[in-house]
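Revision sheet: C-alpha cells.
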Amino acid sequence: MLQRNVRTDSDVRSVAQTPLKRWGFSLLELLVVIAIIAILIALSTAALGSARRAAADVQCLSNLRSLWRGLNAIESDGLLPMYEVTTFPIQDGTDWDTFTKRWGAAMGVAAPQRMQEQPGVERRSYQTATPWVCPSDRVGALDPNQRQRRLPDHDPTCRVADKHATSYLPFCAQWMLNARLLSTHDPVSIRRFVTRLYEENADVPPLGEWAELHGKLQSGRFSLAAYIDGSVRRNSLTIARESTFNAALMKWIRSAPKSPPGP
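Predicted:
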C-alpha cells in the first residue's frame, strides 16, 4: 500500500523557523570593493602617465639629436652657426626664417612655415611639425617671450611667437647674435670664440627645449638639451654655472663694444 507524504503542523513550523539564506553584499563589503577599484585605477593612471612622459622624452631626445646634427651641418668650418643678420635693427623675423630654412635643409626636412598674417595680430604664426615640435608641449602653455601671459591658442603644431617658431632654441646662435649686435667683433671671430667657450664648458647646453611650452613656468630653463659633445640628456645645469658662462661671454663682448649711434 502506497504511503502519502503528509506534512504535519510541526513540519510547517520547522520550515517557517528556518532562516532564509541572504544573497548579496553588505555595505562594508561594497565599500571595500569600491576602495580596491579606486586604488587600481589610481595606480594604472599613474603608470600610464609615466609611460606617456617617458615616450615623450624619447621623441624629444630624438628631435634634439636631429636638430643638433643639422645645426652642426649648417656650416662646413666646424664652428657653430650664427643667426644671419642682414638688417639692423632686426625686423619682421626674416633673418630667423632664413636661419631655420638653412637648418631644415641641413637635416633634409621642411622648416617651419610662416602662416598668413591675421589682421590686428602683431605676433607671427608658424605651421610646423617634427622635429621642430616637442611632444610634451601643451595647449595654453606659457609664452617664452612674455612669461606673464599664456598662449590660449597655442597648439603643438602651430607656433605663435615673436622669434622662435619651434620648441627648441639654439642658444649658441642667440648668443652670437647678441655679440654681433653689441660688439665690433667680426662674425667669424664671434663664432670661433663662442664655439670654443662651449667646448671649454661642456656642461652648458648650446641647444635645448623651452620648458615653458610644457605648461609650467621654469624661468626659461631647458628640460632636455643637447651638448657640445653630441650627447642629449636631461639638463642639470645650475643657475650658478649658467651665470659664470654668461659672464665670461659678456666680458668678451664688452672687450670690443659697439659705439652707440649718434644723436
